Amino acid sequence: MKKSRAILYTAQILTGIAAAAAYAFRPRPTRRSGQVVLITGGSRGLGLALAERYARSGANLILAARDLDELVSARHILLDREAIQSPEDVLLIPADLTDATQAAKLVDHAISHFGRIDVLINNAGIIEVGPVENQPLAAYRRAMATNFFAALHTTHAALPHLLRRNSLHGDAAIVNIASIGGKFAMPHMLPYVASKFALVGFSEGLHAELRHKGIRVTTVCPGLMRTGGEAHADYTGQTKKEQRWFTLASRTPILTASVRHAANKIYNAVAAGRAEITITPQAWLAARIAGAAPATTQYLASLANQLLLPAPSASGQFDLGFTLKVSTYEMFEVDPNPKQN
């Protein structure tokens, strides 16, 4: 009896050792052949969270941002979290997408590497915070260049390829990460608001024109999210006070959504082909009140500006800030030899 029990225990131990060895030296699973997803502003915040969410679904990723070091760091994070299995699963392309030429090269590089793009996510953005009296014209140009024109440049470059895609891969998708600031004008953020209103209008128009052509366009209007973006925002006016209120608003859990939660909602909305989503109950409510009662919404915003937000700085009011030429962003084209009527 004892001998039989000893044999049984020995067999169990050997079986356990064999199972452990088989697990340790098992062949790594091959990556599923999934979507090809291009994410701008993909090195941190919501862009990185979206990269992780799509990577876990088996997607091939192209991440674009200005800073190559941040892109490399993002790839290390995806590896550490085991969202990807090797560095080759992510193509990193540093690019300044306010430049249409760099946006075109980004798209060409992505397609030459993977053969196609299935999902384009326009996520790159900047934030300008401060009262209108202290916002220079340069702040509006910066916001429009990154929050609107970068998305326009990338979409314009990718659109011919998306329209020519083989239908066997299913519908293509364009995802424009706008903001509740594109539905509701938040005080002390006018450059950001103006650029996001422009992006929302462009995105909604794209949806109307491309839906029947096999390209689904989703407009995303998040409320406040805990992205860490407050650390990278530009502040004007009483900068310390402006930074204090914006940081507090951006980090309060009840008022804000985590980037992981936002990424999941966006992923599901794109998969379902939804035209538009808001993120956070406050953003959902604000968008509907602004649409149904615009005068009331603007009055409440004016009260918040008067009672809660810092007063403008006395110095530098209405600084024109002619530090950037209009032609930098090709906002206007002037004929050097206009025809006379």
Q: What would you say this structure looks like, in words?
A:
- There is one protein chain.
- With 341 residues, this protein is of the alpha/beta class.
- 48% of the residues lie in helices and 13% in strands.
- The protein is built from 10 helices and 11 strands.
- A 7-stranded parallel β-sheet has the order 3-2-1-4-6-7-11, with helices on both faces. The chain has a two-stranded parallel ribbon with strand order 5-9. Strands 8-10 form a two-stranded parallel sheet.
- Helix 2 links the parallel strand 1 (36-40) and strand 2 (60-65).
- Mean pLDDT is 86; it is low at 1-33 and 320-341.
Trace the largest sheet across and list its strands.
3-2-1-4-6-7-11
> In percent, how much strand structure appears in the residues?
5-15%
Q: In sequence order, what are the helices and strands, one letter per element?
A: HEHEHEHEEHEHEEEHEHEHH
For the terminal residues, how far apart are their CA atoms? Answer: 113 Å
How many DSSP helices? Answer: 10
**How would a textbook summarize the main sheet?**
7 strands, parallel
The number of distinct β-strands equals: 11
Low-confidence stretches: 1-33, 320-341
